[in-house]
Write a structure and sequence with these properties.
Elements: H1 3-14, H2 19-41, E1 45-51, H3 52-56, E2 66-72, H4 80-93, E3 99-100, E4 105-109, E5 112-121, E6 129-133, E7 138-142, H5 144-154, H6 157-169, H7 176-186, H8 196-210, E8 217-218, E9 221-225, H9 232-247
Parallel strand pairs: 2-5
Antiparallel strand pairs: 1-2, 3-4, 4-5, 5-6, 6-7, 8-9
């Protein structure tokens, strides 16, 4: 089996071959949770849409299967922290086991893992939102729709998925949004039809050489430096594994 064949096989096993499968899951989940969200929002629901890796086409199995962004009107006067926690409470009352994550509320709908991301819309005709960041007990501003479009336009979905799978194989702390931007940067100037074997090795070598000093800027808000969300130790461990992976002779020892 060639390197390209091996990596394609990994993708076939670990990703959604048919995007329609995820759209069907999204609709099934939405039917279940929308009434709860509408009641919780008390009339302040602006819109609700599919977000995260499922919307970007970069999802892998074993992580959140469906990401839902919940846009709350700017006129809502509750705090971001209360908005975040009260959504978790509403889902608990509805019978779901809730996981309070960094900017999302994680639940399981049937056998589908779901992340609910509440955000308060900025004033005016804009797609910018403020999100509560629980790890820092703070907030951040971003444009989720712009993030989605940025990844779709990059045409690097397979390499982003491979890097996420590699991260999970080695149990690394490496946020998905950081991976997306690193892969785009690593393959800048490369052909869009670069083969998996060559392209993924370029990504690993780029991580090895640049992760410690790389400045990753949120395409949805240039004031939001995403690389700061990783500690120096987390970056160092990612660099160490990238260095080891790039030196291996066989893909079986790198990703599986």
């Amino acid at each position: 089996m060639t390197g390209n064949e091996y990596l394609q096989n990994v993708l076939n096993v670990k990703t959604y071959v048919y995007p329609a499968e995820q759209n069907t899951q999204y609709q099934a989940v939405l039917t279940r949770v929308l009434p709860i969200i509408q009641q919780w929002s008390m009339g302040y629901l602006e819109e609700i849409f599919q977000s995260g890796s499922s919307a970007k086409g970069t999802a892998i199995k074993g992580k959140s299967d469906v990401d839902i962004f919940i846009s709350i009107k700017s006129s809502c006067n509750t705090t971001l922290e209360n908005m975040f926690n009260s959504l978790g409470n509403a889902m608990t009352i509805a019978g779901y086991n809730v996981r309070r994550q960094n900017v999302s509320i994680g639940i399981k709908v049937g056998n589908i893992d779901v992340d609910l991301v509440p955000g308060k819309k900025d004033i005016g005709n804009t797609n910018y939102h403020k999100l509560y960041v629980s790890k820092k007990d703070s907030w951040t501003q971003t444009n989720v729709k712009l993030q989605i479009q940025n990844i779709k336009n990059s045409r690097r979905a397979k390499f982003i998925q491979l890097t996420k799978i590699w991260r999970d194989c080695h149990r690394l702390e490496f946020p998905s949004i950081n991976i997306e931007l690193v892969v785009i940067e690593a393959l800048k100037g490369c052909s869009y039809d670069i083969d998996l074997n060559t392209g993924f090795m370029k990504v690993l070598e780029y991580i090895r050489d640049n992760i410690m000093t790389l400045r990753l800027v949120d395409p949805g808000n240039t004031a939001n430096i995403l690389s700061d969300d990783m500690t120096e130790n987390e970056k160092r461990i990612v660099q160490m594994y990238a260095q080891d992976s790039a030196s291996q002779k066989y893909w079986e020892n790198i990703i599986w």
